[in-house]
Amino acid sequence: MLALVALVVTASAAGCKAKEGGDCKIEAKLTCDDPKTALACHNNKWEKELCKGAKGCTQKGNDGECDHVTADNGDVCTIQDDHSCSADKKSMVRCMKYKYVTVETCLGPGGCVRDKEAACDNSTSAAGDPCTQEGDAACSTDGKSSLACKGGKMTTTVPCKGPKGCSVSGTAVRCDDALSDVGDPCMATPGKDHYGCSMDSKSLLKCDGLKFVQSDTCVGKKTCKLQNEVFGCFL
Predict the structure, then answer these.
(1) What is the pLDDT of residues 72-126, one digit of tens each?
(2) What is each CA distance from 212 to 84, 123, 202, in whole angstroms?
(3) Which domains can be identified in the chain, with CATH numbers?
(4) How far is CA 30 from CA 59, 70, 90, 217, in A?
(5) Whole-angstrom Cα distance, residue 111 to residue 138?
(6) CA-CA to 178 of 20 to 30 Å: which in 19, 49, 197, 220?
(7) How far apart are CA 17 and CA 171, in angstroms?
(8) Which residues pair with 147 in a beta bridge?
(9) What is the pLDDT of residues 48-77, one digit of tens each?
(10) What is residue 56's three-state secondary structure?
(11) What is the pTM of this model?
């Protein structure tokens, strides 16, 4: 009789299989459900986790490995703080509380690339986009203003109304504010005067603190222009 009981218990254990929504005990354990999907033990329940990378889900003994070279906002994940790239390569996501969350947009020409770590080209961004590095500079998507990361959001800093607009050279963001309006925000190098011209070329402007103010009026046939690397009123 004892042998029969042992046989029944063994058969029942062998029949147990992880399934979505079912109970589990080992937190953060993974097992493969199919070649592209894992089941992850999150908060004592099995949850489906998509493995969008080329390797899919690989079972190694009792543990599964999920390839997250590619992942999208809202996807289930297990490794806290893991960073990955969205399928369209335009954003970087981070695993937070078992969900991938977009932490940065990658609208620059390099997009988002993940090898061992994710790298994001955010040299082009839109105002309001999420960002991670305070003070990180970028150009707007239309190339007409510069932005900086402030409090986790890309924020417009200076309009770039000059003919060259906003451009990126290597890691440097350059803003052409040679043409501006009185009151436009501006940024001057400490200890160095910064000038520009009004949009109608009738006034010489100076960056006074954080905004352009009128410095001189161009009378007669004189117009405001850059001449010999100096802004002024010239014929």
Answers:
(1) 999 999 999 999 999 999 999 999 999 999 999 999 999 999 988 999 999 999 9
(2) 42, 25, 14
(3) 23-121 (no CATH), 123-176 (2.30.130.50), 177-235 (2.30.130.50)
(4) 9, 18, 28, 72
(5) 14
(6) 220
(7) 52
(8) 138, 156
(9) 999 999 999 999 999 999 999 999 999 999
(10) coil
(11) 0.81
